[in-house]
Amino acid sequence: MIQSIALNYEYFSGLILKSGYEIIEIKNNICDYVFKKETILKLRSLLLTSEIIDFTSPSDGRIIELPIAINQIVNMNDPLFSIETSDSIENFTMGAFEFNKKKLHDTTVEMEIDEFTDDKSVMFTKVASEKTRYLKLYSNIINQQYPELSITFENFNGFAYALLKSFNEDITLETNDSVIFLFEDNIKINFEFQNSRMGERYAYINHHALLAEDLMIFENKSLLKVKLVSNRKGIYEIFHLQNRYPHSQYKSEFEGQYLLKLMASMFVKFHIDNQLALPNEKK
User: Fold this and answer.
1) Which of 80, 89, 157, 176 is deepest in the core (most CB within 10 A)?
2) What is 90-273's CATH number?
3) How far apart are CA 236 and CA 16, in angstroms?
4) pTM of the model
């Protein structure tokens, strides 16, 4: 099924202007796989320059027509793009994965050496083309103001650890707070934080030691969901990889699971290639 999108009245909640709109951003290309409600392009009114309109995909699918360009002026009923809708979510998910695999693999882990102290840090410098250390998970609560929980793997002077970042003002990764990872086959990893948290409002950080056996699970088992727990307050929040947020690192749960496995695999390989040890048992 083909869905063609034109500049029309359904995208306007207030005054409808006839002066035209300028295309100021195109986020995708022909053949790109997109999800429903993912922003495809942005328009700005020629008369009210503060009025910005996001045009989103009406469904999961693949862009097949994009007869527009940056700085082009469009008017009411002008065509903007066309989508070939997915035949089934399974086919779409696998098609999107194959299309996006190159982006997922644009992930890098490096070692940084402090020239003053000789401290050695192994960390991710890019995740799925994004210059960040973290993979993002998303809250189970719809319309959550701060929907993310972020995770990465690092090593500082031989100490390997998982680093978590919470944006939840109620669960701030304090000492004795915990995070439980639930994988396929009912396999679980439970991290209870033993250190004081770092960070500031809406960006709280804490870490937990990583064992080789933990990394083996992250590398080989599909993560289903994560439970973030404030043991002091007796509250929790659930996070997952079932992404429906536009222009994030991955476009489906399958891609998110693949990306997390890839990060764990790259982290382990970096240690092997550089003859860095990973702890095999708890101290």
Assistant:
1) 80
2) 2.60.40.1880
3) 45
4) 0.86
